[in-house]
Amino acid sequence: MANEKTSRKAASAAAKVLSNPKSTPAAKSAAGSALTQRGSTEVTGKAAASKAAKVLSSPTASKAAKSAAGSALTQRPSKGRR
Predict the structure, then answer these.
(1) Contacts (Cβ under 8 Å, ≥6 apart) of 52
(2) Is the separation of the CB atoms in 17 and 64 below 8 Å?
């Protein structure tokens, strides 16, 4: 299990993504995952991690969306530790 938690800065970026009506569904999924992990021991699920990776590879994703996606991916357990 990942011991990471979403930082205040990443949570703020995730909130911006969720409140932006132009954010893509993938960006909103990653942002929601990151916010869920702000004060808990939750980890990013497989589907949310896949969407977060899509956001990170998108040349049009906003800086806030990429920050939230990066935070969500950081909290995904590595394959060797499951």
Answers:
(1) 26, 29, 30, 33, 44, 68, 69, 70, 72, 73
(2) yes
Distance CA 67, CA 37 (A): 14
Cβ contacts of residue 28 below 8 Å, gap of 6+?
17, 18
> What's the pLDDT tens digit per position in 28-66?
999 998 888 888 778 888 999 999 999 999 999 999 999
2: pLDDT confidence band, cut at 50, 70 and 90? Answer: low
Nearest to 45 by CA among 30, 61, 25: 30
| Helix residue ranges per DSSP H, the chain | 8-19, 25-36, 46-57, 63-74
